[in-house]
Amino acid sequence: MSTTTTPHAPRPTAAAPARRTVVRDIVLSLLVDAALPYLVYLVLTARGMSDVAALAWSALPPALHVAVQAVRHRRVEPVGVVVLVTVAAGLATSLLTGDARLAVARDAVQSIGFALLLGGSLLLGRRPLVFHVCRFFGRAQRPDLPELMERQWAANPVFRRTLRRATAVAALAMVAEAALRVTLAYTLAPVVALPILSVQSVVVWTALSALLVVAVRRAVRAGA
């Protein structure tokens, strides 16, 4: 399932609270994006609902989480918009075709979409997408992060090179994640593939976020 957590850029002076925030976000994502969708699927199929319809309803917890976050923070996060659009597109396609395997693999559309955005930012944008993602989400943990990143981008070639490489790695990771998702969806039964792929999404996004934070910190230190 789609992951609805966002990367964080912790304060160097508040490592312990930042770690607690990361752990809390991972647990929340596992609950909302993996456990609840699978529970919904199991309950509905046990009551006689078809795999395709049950899989459609299983997308409700992540979608509701995005909506709750938007109301809570009084703004719609770009990642949340992408999640909702891709979930809606995947659901519409799977319901029209009646293919349960396609319903399980629907989040591959989201991964490919992110991969295209990441790759396109390297080819067409002045700055890679990872730069904007870090600045947007990191300011919640560190308000001065946007200004710091602007200074680093202007004066630190290691920082620029690191973010470009991170963007390329993230794009490749999204393509690989999508390919693996489609393979497992069409190889395993939905009842087996759904929990595996739900956890896979959380692991991939968490790992990319952690690697990005480490890479950015090292680039800043190298430039300093």
Describe the structure.
The chain has one domain (15-223). The protein has ten helices and no strands. By secondary structure, the protein is an all-alpha fold. Helix 1 (15-46) packs antiparallel against helix 10. Helices cover 80% and strands 0% of the residues. The chain has helices spanning 15-46, 51-58, 60-73, 78-97, 100-104, 108-124, 129-138, 145-155, 157-185, 190-223. It comes from Pseudonocardia spirodelae. Keywords: Membrane, Transmembrane, Transmembrane helix. The chain crosses the membrane at residues 26-46, 78-96, 108-125, 166-186, 192-216.
List the helices and strands and how they pair.
Blueprint: H1 15-46, H2 51-58, H3 60-73, H4 78-97, H5 100-104, H6 108-124, H7 129-138, H8 145-155, H9 157-185, H10 190-223
Helix pairs in contact: 1-2, 1-3, 1-10, 3-4, 6-9, 9-10
